[in-house]
Each structure stands twice: as structure tokens, then as C-alpha cells.
Amino acid sequence: MTLSVLSRPERPARPGAPARSARPRRTGLAWLYFGPVLISLLVWVYGPLLFTGVLSFLDWNLVAPDVAWNGLKNYETLATEPEFGNAAWNTLLYALCTLPFATVVPCALAIAMWKRPGRASEVYRVLLFLPVVLAPVANALAWQFMLDPLHGTVNVVLEAVGLSPVNWLGDPHTALLTVVLVTMPKVIALNTLLFGAALANVDRRTVEAARLDDATEGEITRRVVVPQLRKTLLLLGLLSMVVVWPWLFTNIGVLTRGGPSGATDNVYYRLYTYGFTFFDAGTASAAAVVIAIVFGALLVGYSLLSRRLRVSR
Amino acid sequence: MFRASARGAGVARHLLLIVAVVLMLLPLAYALGTSFKPVSTLYDLNPVPLPGTLENYDLALTRFEIGRLLLNTLLMAAGVTVTTMLVALPAAYALVLFERARGRSLMVVVVGAALLIPPGALIIPQFLMTSWLGWQGNPVGLIIPQLGTSALAVLLLRDHIRSVPPSLIGAAVLEGATPWDILRQVVLGLLRPALGAVAILLFINTWNEYLWPLLVMPSVEDTTIQPGLALFAAPENPQYGPLLAAAMLASLPVLVMYVLASRRIADAFIHSGLR
Q: Is A292 in CB contact (< 8 Å) with chain B?
């Protein structure tokens, strides 16, 4: 989750500092202390990563003893199968739908609280952060109840004002957007918090000066505050592209299971389906490799950007 | 004129924030009200459950055996938090204290790169390895593989340990304290609140984990609360009364923690996000 390791170079050594040079080298002891983490990461992260790479060239059903070399066939399957193409397309749609909720919306909320600090803003802050910690499946079920096509509150209200009801999660045209909307409280809540942290670095005097010049609040937000947050907007947009997938996965798993007819599927859910519905370890692993490569490209982009922009909170 | 527009902006600001709070929390608030309603008024538009009933909670605890799932979840979250802290704290400490150790930059790379791998991409081999170890359906299999996420804890703890004044550590070294003494007495003594914040972050994230327990603990009795809720919801006609009551119980522990330490928890999430 944290990307600070990419954005922040190691502190330069200060050879002259007496307290530092008093510290012993102690290489053996250092690795002893580091050992447990090293073993944990080798066994549960780096080992599995290599293993995934190997599996992606095999034909295997996860259980039976017969394993066959499959060459690049698994990757060919991904490239030609319409289901994976659909999932990749949907992944792009998910990303595009998520972006405004990761940038514009939380930015506006954070600025609204920042402009007038006080008791009211503190209450908003506490409430707006709640979706980050609340049980994700509870959130999904609460929405499922309200969106029930027959008795759900949303449709009852729609009918009461003369509109026709919508089968939110059951209609392929609305299902993906509905899953996005159910997931967004968490994205908005986390990013509002992070925008708030970034705003701590904005000089309030620039706002006061603009107020003295009779600028309206809207102008102050657009011309004075937002320009100072431009880098944060970029970085949080990219960060959301990294963290949102497990949150979407939970809601897809609980609410739609990728349906109706693939409308809410994405590459992460596809990987899970290949692996644990079809028991096709090879194709699932090939999907994992593709995901890891795209993800890695995103992170390299993020690190290049953050190094160039030197954003700090 | 000036005053009127300033007031207008103030109203717009509150309106924006109130609409956001309502949209983001209304379904959960509505579910909370509904969880106290009897079946006969379950779908009423009025969100206030009058007269209220505890019948749904009773059903959630007896028919769904929610208590058992909550206990499983507590064990998993506590187990992951404790093991992760035990593994990550010495490592973070080594990164700060033994700055001149050979291969220290390799340690930083090992920890940093582990965070860059999308966790979803590792589930197939992690699942296979737990099967081969005979850890399927076993609490050990629920907890130990989640040590793969310990890299985040190492970096968070390292940042906290860095905030200990070097002169304090230097003085302890000159007095002949061993690294182990310094970890126990200086670092743990000074940083208890900060370490608590990291532990709370780990606990909440593990409490809300959905995918891993779904894979390792597929049976309804032994699973944890997030996949458990999803299993109860699966049939065609979910019984929303007990289901929403169970969902509220699933959120309660984390909510209590948040009420007790909202500022600290928010700070921990800021650290884990960006800097």
C-alpha cells in the first residue's frame, strides 16, 4: 500500500555525526534481526512470484499428478478468449470510473473542510473517514438491500416519484457502474484523508490574501488552492489505480460474481475464476503475470512522476 | 453584497459535505435501522425501527452462529497482528540501528519490492503451498501466509523508530547497552503509542480481509466474518433481517476501536498511504 519507498530516497549518510559513528557495524546481528522478515517474504512473496511465472507455462488442474508443459498456450488463450478481452476492457472501464472519485471528489471535500477549520469540520472529518475501516462486506450487503430490484428502497423511491425501477445489479448496462458506486465510499474516504494531509502544507495566508482581494470562495478554491494540490491530484489518482482492485474484488464477489453475463468481470476476478472455478492453474497464472507486468508499469510511472514532482505531505 | 456571497459559499460548503456524508454512510445507517425491524416492516421506507426488536440479532447469533465467526475473525486478526509485529519490529529496528551493516541497502530493496507486487497475483501459489503444508482449513494457514504483507509494517515501523533521537541511542550504546536492551527499553519505551497505531492498522486491515479466508477456510463454520457474511447472502432469497444484523455485528469491533482512537487510526492510514 505504501509507495514511499519509491518516492523517497534513502537518507544520505552523515559521516561526521558523532551519534551515528558511535553505532557499530554489526553485520551479522543486523541480518539476524532481519532474518524473520527475510524468510517470510522469500516464502510468501518472492517464492510464489517465481512459482506463478513457472505455472503460467504449465497445463495443470491444481490437484491431479499429471502436469504438462504448455509453452505459451496459456498466454495465447488469454489473447484469444473473448472472456479475458471483456475482462480487460471492463478493467479499463473500472479504472476510468474510479478516477474522478479518487481525485476531484475527495479534493473538493478536503478543501471544504480545510477552509473553515473548527468543530463542524472535525465532525465531517470523523464521519467521512469511517468507510475506510468499516467491514467491506457489510457495506456491500447494505447496498444490496437498498438496491433490491423488487422491494429495495432506491426503486421504491424511484417509483414513488414516477420513474421506472432499475435492476441495478442485474442489468448488464448498469451493473458495472453500480459496483463502482458501492466501492467508492472507501476510495473517497481514504483520499479525502490524504488530501487533508497534503493541505497541511498549503499556506493559509495565500487564501487570506485572496479573500482581502474580494475573490469569491469558488475562485479561491480554483485559482489559489487547487493549483497547489496539482501534484497530489496526480499521485492520488495513480495510487487509487493501485489500491482499488481488492476493494472492487470484494464487491464483485459478494454482489455479482462477475455477472450478469460478464458485465462486472475484470482481470482480477477473471484470475480467481480461472484458478478456483475452472481449476486451471496455468491460465490463471498467465493472467497473474500479465497483471503483475501492467501493475509494475503503473508503479514505475508513479515513481518517475513522484520523483519529478517531489510531493511531500 | 460581500456578506451575502460569503454566507452563500458557507451554505454551499456545508451542503457539499452533508451530501457526501449522507451518500457514503446512508446505506449503512439504513441497514443499522433495518436490523432492528421485525420481518413485517423490514422493507418500510421509514428507517427508524419503531417498535424495535432484537429478533434479527437473536437469529444471527443462533442460526448463523455469528458469534463463532466473530471469534474466528478475532483470532485471525490478532494472530496476524502479533506475528507481523514480532517479525517486522526487529527488522525495522535493524534498518535504523545497524545503518552501517553490510547489505543494508539489499534489505531495503527486499522490503520495498515486496510492496510492489499485486497481492492478487500470488494467490494461486500461496493456495497451493498452504495445501501442501496441510494448512487448508487450519488457523495456521489463515495466519502465517499473511506474513507476506509484513513489508508494509516494516516500513511504517522504521519511520517511527527513526524518530527516536540518535543521541538517546548513542548514549545507551556508550553505557554498554546491547542492541536488544535498546530495542526493549529505549525503542519500546518511547514508541508505545506509535507501535500501537501500526498494530491497530494491521488489525483493522486483517479483520476486513475477504479473499484469503475464502480460499483457506471454505466451510461455513470455520471461516471468518467477511466471507461468512457473503456465504449467508448467497441464496436466492437472502433473509435480510438477520443478515443485516450480522453485518452490523461484523462492523462493531472496528467501529469501537475507531471511536476510541479516531485521530491515531487516521494518522496510521495517512502514513500507510502517501507522504
A: yes
Q: For domain B59-273, which CATH number applies: 1.20.120.80, 1.10.10.10, 1.10.3720.10, 3.40.50.150? A: 1.10.3720.10
pLDDT digits (tens, 9 = 90+) for B39-89: 777 777 777 777 788 888 988 888 888 899 999 999 999 999 999 999 999
Please say whether the beta carbons of A293 and A218 come within 8 A.
no
Taking the CA of residue B176 and the nearest CA in chain A, the distance in Å comes to 12
Query: Does residue B137 sit in helix, strand or coil?
Result: coil
Cα separation, B176 vs A188, whole angstroms: 50
ipTM of this predicted complex?
Answer: 0.87
Residue in the block written with cell 549518510:
A13
Using CB atoms within 10 A of its CB, is residue A211 exposed (0-12), middle (13-18) or buried (19+)? middle
Q: Which of A248, A253, A181, A144 is nearest to B238 (CA)?
A: A144
**Among A40, A62, A292, whose Cβ lies nearest the Cβ of B87?**
A40
**Integer Cα distance of B225 and B247 in angstroms:** 9
Lowest-confidence segment of A149-163, A253-267, A298-312 by average pLDDT:
A298-312
Q: CB–CB of A268 and B120 under 8 A?
A: yes
Q: What angle do CA A281, A282, A287 make, to 5 degrees?
A: 95
Domain ranges of chain A: 4-9+75-309
List chain B residues with CB under 8 Å of A57: none
All structural domains of chain B with their residue ranges: 59-273
- Among A90, A14, A239, A108, smallest CA distance to B116 is for A239
Mutate to test the interface with A, among B106, B146, B186, B210 (most CBs of A within 10 A): B210
Grid cell 547489505 in the structure block, residue: B103
According to CATH, the superfamily of the domain at A4-9+75-309 is: MetI-like (1.10.3720.10)
pTM (2 decimals)? 0.87
**Which secondary-structure segment (H or E) carries A182?**
helix A175-199
CA distance B254 to A132: 10
Q: In the A/B pair of chains, how many CB contacts fall below 8 A?
A: 351
Q: How does pLDDT run across A204-216, given as a tens digit for each residue?
A: 888 888 888 888 8
Assign A11 to helix, strand or coil: coil
Tell me, rounded to whole angstroms, the distance of Cα A66 from its chain centroid. 38
Which residues, in sequence order, are CB contacts of A230 under 8 Å at separation 6+? none
Residues A185-208 as b/e (b if ≥16 CB within 10 A, e otherwise) read bbbbbbbbbbbbbbbeebeeeebe
Pick the more confident residue, A74 or B272. A74
- Dihedral angle over CA of B166, B172, B178, B181, nearest 10: -90
d(CA A140, CA B166): 47
pLDDT at B216: 93
